[in-house]
Every structure is written in C-alpha cells, then in structure tokens.
C-alpha cells in the first residue's frame, strides 16, 4: 500500500506523534510523501490512501485540494469535534493493520459544485452547462456553501430557487446550502436539520430570516439551487467550507449542484452515528440535576 500523509502542524500533539507514526507505518506501507503546508495541489499525489492528521477543517481542505481524485481519506482527529476525521489517535494505531489489510470500509460523501456568474449572464435550468463557461468563481464544498451578509451587517435580500421553481425572496443574514456531511456544521448551529450522511439530499437553511415562517428545507441531492443577490452589503461573501470565498455584487448568481465526484472516507468501525451526535453535540441529553425549591424557569 502507498500512503501519503497530510499533517496540520498547528494542531496540538500532531508534531510529537508524527515522527513515531512514520517509523511505525513505514514497516508495512510505502510512505510516498508528507505534506504540512496545507496549501499545495494534491491532484498528482501518488497514493492508495491519504492519512489526514488534524481535524475536520484539515480534512475538508485536503478533499478540496484533491480536485476530484478518488483517493480515500482517513482522518485522525486532533481537533475539537471530529465528525469527518472520525478516528482518535488511539483508534488509528489500533486499526492501522486493518487499514493495510483492507478490512476497513469506505463511504461516499456528497460534494457541492459551486459557481458564481455575473448579472449579465442569463441563467435558467436548461442552460446551466453553458452558463458555467462564464463563471468568475468556482469551488467545491464537502460541507456547505454559505452566503453571509458581511459588513456593514445590514440585512441582505436574496432570491432562492431550485430546479427552475419560482424563486423565493427573503431578507436576512444569509443562507446555508449544506450536504448531509455538513449538516452538523454551521447548518445545525443556524437551526437546520441533522441529516444522515447516507441520504442523497441537500439542506437549505436561512440565517436569521426576517420572517416567522421561512423554515429550513431538505431537497433532492440532484437539485440545482440558484441564489441571486438582489440587495447586498459591501462585504457580502460566499464561503465554501469556510475556506474558499468570493465577495458578491448585486445581481450575482450563485449556482449550486452536486459535484460529479464524491469524496471517499475510510470509516471508523467503532463510530456510531447517534452516539456521535449525543457525545459531540449533546443531542438528546437529559437535563442535569433537578431544580431546587423556589427555583423558577
């Protein structure tokens, strides 16, 4: 097996373990390279598996730098939550032989293809491929594409539509389009639904809408979503996975659809979805203790 290593040196404990791990792994696999820059294009990497040492952000940037190449990623979490980088350091060393011997399963994670075209480009569902030739920004997002109001932080007006349906206009602080993998990120913080990663859908969650009835929505993963910037601020910005970004001008259109290439993740056999939600997000956790006499809620 050929193994390429991406290590985030800013994460605590990554530097102390990496030297020992490289010696340990070299006894069973060919180490084809070690990247600590977190910037270089990985499209030409020579590997059967990429080991990612860091957190979910490190794994997201690694997936983007692969540019669609179908090399499985195995994430070891040195960060805070670790939904995508699902192995702890102890679990990695325990499961390393299983990885080498091919006993660990892989899962396909959906990725968004995100483009921005200017006001001068006419856009409809039947002409998406032609429109993309005129895009001025393109990125992929394994978690989410987010339009945020930005400074001076006045409400923005956005027109959102999917699959050629009539557009819905609303005022607020922005909107989140997420994959199932990204539903536990910014989406859940904004009140959006948690979506199982094996469901072929995407979520649309408004950020602080000036409405009592604009609720989050789950739509088909094959949908094409268009967000038109009707009224924006000087700092209104599109973020993809919180990393790639571009400022939006009035009239710009953001086109979001499923990418042709999924990201392959090596699954942790010890991870359980509901247990992860409970442990990492305190989902369904009962209140602690009891209220004393005279206590009011």
Give the helix tally: 6
Low-confidence stretches: none
Largest sheet, spatial ordering of strands: 7-6-17-14-9-10
Order of H and E elements: EHEEHEHEEHEEEEEHEEEEEEEH
The CATH homologous superfamily name of the largest domain equals Probable inorganic polyphosphate/atp-NAD kinase, domain 2
Largest sheet properties: 6 strands, antiparallel
Helix content: 10-25%
CA distance, first residue to last residue: 59 Å
SSE-based structural type: alpha+beta
Query: Which fold name is given in CATH as the topology of the largest domain?
Result: Tumour Suppressor Smad4
Based on CA inertia axes, which overall geometry fits? globular
What is the annotated CATH architecture of the largest domain?
Answer: Sandwich
Please count the beta strands (DSSP E, at least 2 residues each). Answer: 18
Task: Kindly report the average pLDDT value.
Answer: 91
Strand content: 25-35%
Name the assembly state. Answer: single chain
Q: What is the CATH top level name of the largest domain? A: Mainly Beta
Report the radius of gyration as a whole number of Å. Answer: 21 Å
Number of domains: 2
Describe, in short, the structure shown.
By secondary structure, this protein is α+β, with helices and mostly antiparallel strands. The chain has helices at 14-25, 56-65, 89-100, 128-131, 186-189, 273-281, and strands at 2-7, 30-35, 49-54, 73-77, 106-109, 112-117, 137-141, 144-148, 156-162, 168-172, 174-178, 201-207, 217-220, 225-231, 237-240, 244-247, 253-258, 263-266. The chain contains 6 helices and 18 strands.
């Amino acid at each position: 097996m050929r193994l390429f290593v991406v290590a985030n040196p800013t994460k605590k404990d990554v530097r102390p373990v990496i030297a020992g791990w490289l010696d340990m792994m070299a006894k069973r696999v060919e180490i084809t390279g070690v990247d600590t820059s977190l910037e270089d294009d990985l499209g030409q990497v020579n590997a059967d598996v990429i080991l990612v040492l860091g957190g979910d952000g490190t794994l997201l940037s690694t997936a983007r730098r692969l540019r669609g190449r179908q090399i499985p990623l195995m994430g070891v979490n040195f960060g805070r939550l670790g939904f995508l980088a699902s192995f702890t350091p102890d679990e990695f060393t325990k499961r390393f032989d299983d990885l080498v011997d091919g006993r660990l399963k892989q899962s396909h994670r959906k990725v968004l293809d995100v483009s921005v075209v200017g006001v001068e480009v006419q856009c409809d569902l039947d002409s998406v491929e032609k429109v993309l030739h005129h895009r001025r920004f393109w990125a992929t997002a394994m978690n989410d594409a987010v339009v945020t109001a930005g400074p001076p932080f006045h409400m923005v007006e956005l027109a959102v539509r999917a699959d050629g349906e009539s557009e819905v206009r609303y005022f607020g602080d922005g909107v989140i389009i997420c994959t199932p993998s990204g539903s536990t990120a910014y989406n859940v913080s904004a009140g959006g639904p948690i979506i199982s990663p094996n469901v072929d859908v995407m979520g649309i969650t408004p950020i602080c809408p000036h409405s009592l009835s604009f609720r989050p929505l789950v739509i088909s993963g094959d949908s094409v979503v268009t967000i038109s910037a009707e009224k924006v601020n000087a700092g209104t910005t599109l973020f993809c996975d919180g990393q790639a970004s571009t400022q939006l001008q009035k009239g710009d259109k953001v086109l979001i659809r499923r990418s042709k290439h999924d990201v392959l993740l090596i699954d942790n056999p010890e991870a359980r979805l509901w247990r992860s939600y409970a442990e990492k997000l305190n989902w369904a956790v009962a209140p602690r203790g009891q209220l004393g006499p005279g206590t009011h809620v």
